[in-house]
Automatic annotation (TrEMBL):
Coiled coil: none annotated. The keyword Membrane applies. GO terms for cellular component: membrane. Its main location: membrane. This is Protein DETOXIFICATION. The lineage of its organism: Eukaryota, Viridiplantae, Streptophyta, Embryophyta, Tracheophyta. It comes from the Eukaryota. It is found in: Membrane. It comes from Paspalum notatum var. saurae. The chain crosses the membrane at residues 23-56, 76-95, 168-188, 208-230, 251-274, 316-336, 342-361. One of its GO terms (molecular function) is antiporter activity. Belongs to the multi antimicrobial extrusion (MATE) (TC 2.A.66.1) family.
Length: 378
């Protein structure tokens, strides 16, 4: 549900003749800003882990409290490479290079899986091992991306000026507000699920993780759509931009339906990868409708995000997500006590549906940058 946009500003290249690498202040600025944000996140997560557990609804005497807090504190050290990697992915998108991020993330995920298999049970590190595996894989991903990017761009340019940072903070602030809206909605849903009991919470988490994982398969669509749309929009090729817009929406809808059908058939087998507890599996299977039906909606919502970023429509992306989160949060607070996990899953489906509707509304109203794209005469 989250994407990389810190490096998506237009590039103004200068050539470093000594090393035959471009000098792009936009890249240097975004990477420096990303590193700073990552360090702040590390400190915030370490200092506020206990407070976050309280917000989520895990009491001090809960058996989940100690391992959850331990995992969160350890994972905090992975914040800097995550944010830097996201900024680097944005730079590659600016170059219309989608392969390098794929290989880097794939290598990181492979290392994560290998280390999980070694550290959690064979070496007996448990939760700490899981956190160590994840953090290590995140540093590997960031290293690969920076290494490849350094072949093309002078990463450590001193051409970082105040107005560049202010511009990034302005657009980045809107994106951060959008991410906060998403996180608050998901945190509220998790908190309400935790109050249902450990079995219900475990079943809910299986559904949520499957939902998030499969939804990320849709992320390729907004990535490609954003890069292609931004390129045509910047060139003034509005007819071609419209073609990109329509095609990405069509492919997104078809992909969402295909994922929904696949999940409906294979969810039972997939849930067995998480646990063999019959009670937990029963709860997880009760959420299969949420996981499957929401996939077409998720695909359209994610595609809309990519389209927003492709034309720098950051303000609408932030405000529409914040509105969807506020409405869905009210629904969750009302529905969860009455309908339990069913109410929570309905609230999350409402959240994604409102985001998708907001995307269609923006395009239909031809507001902001969409006026010139959708109203251009043939």
């Amino acid at each position: 549900m989250f994407s990389s946009h810190l490096g998506d500003e237009p590039f103004t290249p200068q050539m470093n003749t000594r090393q035959q690498r471009k000098v792009l202040p936009a890249v240097s600025t975004s990477l420096a800003l990303a590193a700073g944000i990552g360090l702040l996140e590390t400190v915030a997560l370490i200092v506020g882990s206990g407070t976050l557990m309280n917000i989520i609804g895990i009491p001090v005497d809960s058996p989940m409290r100690a391992p959850a807090e331990q995992f969160l504190t350890s994972r905090a050290y992975g914040a800097p490479p995550i944010i830097v990697a996201l900024a680097a992915q944005g730079a590659f998108r600016g170059f219309l290079d989608t392969k390098t991020p794929l290989y880097a993330v794939g290598a990181g995920n492979l290392l994560n899986a290998i280390l999980d298999a070694l550290l959690i049970f064979p070496l007996g590190l448990g939760v700490s091992g899981a956190a160590l595996a994840t953090v290590t894989s995140e540093y590997l991903t960031a290293f690969i991306l920076l290494w490849k990017l350094n072949n093309e761009v002078d990463l450590f340019s001193w051409n970082i000026v105040a107005d560049g940072i202010i511009r990034y903070l302005k657009s980045g602030g809107l994106l951060i507000a959008r991410i906060i809206a998403v996180l608050l909605t998901l945190t509220l849903s998790t908190s309400l699920a935790a109050r249902e009991g450990p079995v219900q919470m475990a079943g809910y988490e299986i559904c949520l993780q499957v939902w998030l994982t499969i939804s990320l398969l849709n992320d390729a669509l907004p990535l490609a759509g954003q890069a292609l749309l931004a390129s045509e929009y910047a060139k003034g090729n509005y007819k071609q931009a419209r073609m990109v817009l329509y095609r990405v929406l069509q492919v997104g809808g078809v992909t969402g339906v295909a994922l929904a059908a696949s999940l409906f058939v294979g969810f039972g087998s997939l849930s067995l990868l998480f646990t063999d507890d019959p009670a937990v599996l029963d709860v997880a299977r009760s959420g299969v409708w949420f996981v499957t039906i929401s996939q077409p909606v998720n695909a359209i919502a994610f595609v809309a995000d990519g389209l927003y970023y492709g034309v720098s429509d950051f303000a609408y992306a932030a405000y529409s997500t914040f509105f969807a989160g506020a409405v869905s949060s009210v629904f969750l607070l009302v529905a969860a006590p009455k309908f339990g996990l069913g109410g929570i899953w309905a609230g999350l489906t409402l959240f994604m549906s409102l985001r998708a509707i907001a995307g269609f509304w923006r395009l239909g109203s031809k507001g902001g940058p969409w006026e010139v794209i959708l109203s251009e005469s043939e």
